[in-house]
Structure formats: structure tokens, C-alpha cells
Amino acid sequence: MENIADLDPLIDSIGDAKYVLLGEASHGTHEYYVWRAIITQRLIKEKGFSFVGVEGDWPDCYRLNRYAKGYLDSGKDIYSVMNEFKRWPTWMWANWETAAFIDWIKVYNEDFPANKRIGFYGLDVYSFRESMNSIIQYLEKNDPKALAVAKTAMKCFEPYDRDEGQTYARASSYVPELCEKEILHLLTEIIKNIPNYNHDPENVMSTEQNAFVASNAEKYYRAMIKRGSASWNIRDEHMVSTIERLMKFHGKEAKTIVWEHNTHIGDARATEMASEGMVNVGQLLREQYLSEGVVAVGFGSYKGSVVAGREWGDSIRKIKVPDAVVGSWEHAFHLAGNGKNKLLLMNEIKDEKCLSSYIRHRAIGVVYNPEQERFGNYVPTILPQRYDAFIFLDETSALHPIHIQPDGNEIPETYPFGI
Suppose 122 and one of 1, 56, 98, 207 were both cysteines; which one would form an S-S bond, judging by CB atoms 3.0 to 4.6 Å apart? Predict the structure, then answer.
């Protein structure tokens, strides 16, 4: 697989599916972002898809959505909008690959009325503080009564508002319902008053979504302190419910493309995650919407480089990715293809008994230490059951973050990467 035409079999196999899930084996690989963008462009142009949902924070991605749709006062250029991404790891979406894609959507949208423009949304649950601030800003102009409820909820959280919810999680182990009542009151108040917020339908939807983020983030923080699968499941269930709300907002004919890590979009039942009681986006969507068409496309590579941190909150680093370990899917594809990229459609091989055992499959997160890779970066996987298609790229390169200092605002020479 080397050019856009090589994607034809994948586009054909997607058919009339309403849910297309595009993965990645890391959060910092140039080729994963570019190929996802190219596939997404084709699906938008050829199949009429409505919006993209990504593994990102709602408030940050909503600004990109407003910019891409050409709303007034939505930003003078893509760099200024991207520069508003503040929460680590900023590079996941504040990168030149995503910037090129958002600029492409913006140009594409110019030929369509407002209600037909392609959207870009964050599905994740982490943005409690940012979502609460967005709610308060909206309610200051639209609902003084609900504003008082929001400020009460925010005040409850203030003593714990410093470390991504960890202080709140520890405190909730002593007082289990710490701020739950205040957050649920806020969510109830906003849902009750939604019919009165009608001057900008998308901002109304966004305010409601921010309330759901706050509510589920509070649940997530409380679950963090416990061992087991609870916090993971709360997060992925939140992402699925967000997709469902977006599908409803975009109407009966809506179709969505989801960009997330393989660990979210590949069916958890085909990995050892299932034995630990974990579910994920790919599994939940397959279980609930298979009749409407759910296609999961995984990505992987044999070697290269990646953007990541050595620990949480670390400076952005370009890190070498070593050759995949012997006995992994990536190693097998490298040997079988003589170093060439390839596209595999699983419907042709999913019943092969020789492929029905668990084989290691590489997964790199935002924290990555390659010298420890063989101990924690491989997920035992039955590949033909986890994905409907798989794109193998033999050698990949690092993403191009916007926030790298001191020259992060310098556009890469190859920008916009063929998009």
C-alpha cells in the first residue's frame, strides 16, 4: 500500500457502514495521522460522512470544529486555534498533520450550508476544568439560575483542582459522594433548560456535552482510586455515549469516523483486556450498531520514530522505535512483506484457524520508554477478530508537534503532507 488508489479495496469494503473507526498504534506517528486523514477525506467525499470524533478533549476540539465550519470569531488561522491546546500531551491534536486536515475541512465546508458542514469533535472525558469553564461562560449569557448551580459545583471541586483529578480521587476514598450531588444537579438543570437555549443549536449541544463531560469525569476520578477496570470502562462508555449524542444531533442519515488508539477502536473481546473486565469503544459499537455497519481499521508498524514523553508531563521528545519483537504481528508482517506496506482485509482471513491464537501486537502511548517495550507495549491480540481491516506500515516517522520550543511555529518543509 503506497498511494491513495491502494485504498480502493478498503473503501469498497466499508460500503454503507455508518461507523468507521480508524486506529493508531501510537499517539505520535506521522503516517498514522496522514493515512487516517486521507481515508477520512475519501469517506467524506465518496460516502457522505458527517463528522469526525477523536480521542481528544471536547472544549479544545470544539474550537477546531467552529474554525472548520467557518463560524464568526472562530480564529484567524489554524495556528492560533491550535495554540490554545494547553493540556499535556498537547501534541496529540496540536500538530501540523491535524492542522492540514482541519484546513482541508474548512475549505471543503465552504461549498455547503451550515447544517451540512463536516464537524470535528473530541470524545474524551478528561477536560473537567475546561468543560466547567465553558459551561460557566455560556450560562453567564444565557441562564443566571443555572449559572449559580454551576458555580456551586465548581466551588466544590476547587480544593482538589490541581493534578488531573488525583487529589479528588484520594479524597473520594474517604467521602465517596464528594461532589457527585453538585455535578448531577448541574447536569439535570442544563438538560431541563435545553429547550430555552435556542439561538445557536451547536453551542447548545456543546454546553450539554460539557455537562456530561463534567459528570462522567467526576465518576472517572472516583474510580481512579480503585483497582480494576472501572475507570477505563467509564471513559470508553463516555466516548460511546458522546458518539451517540453526536449522531442524534446530525440527524437520521448521520455517519461518523472515529480516530482513536487501537486499544479503543479494536474490539476488546479479541484481546486479553476482556479477561480483566474491560470493554472499549470498538466492542460497544459492534454490540449495539453492527446492523448499521461498524468497520474498525487498525494500524501498526515495524520500526521508526515517535513523539512521546518518558513520563507524564515530560517535555516532548522524538524517540526511536526499535524493531518489533520476534513473534509479534508486526514482526511477522515485516518478514512476510519484505519491508513493504500492506492493507489486510480481515473478512478474507477471519476464519483461518492458524490466525485464531493470541499474538503480541504493539501499542505505544503518550508515555514511552523503548528500553522497557517488550515488558509493557504489546497487547496479546487475535488480529482478525479485533479489526475488520489492518494497515501495516513497515517504517514510520515522528509526528510534527506545533508546541515544540523554540521553533514550534515553523511549518515543516513537507507540509501539508499530501492532504
Answer: 56
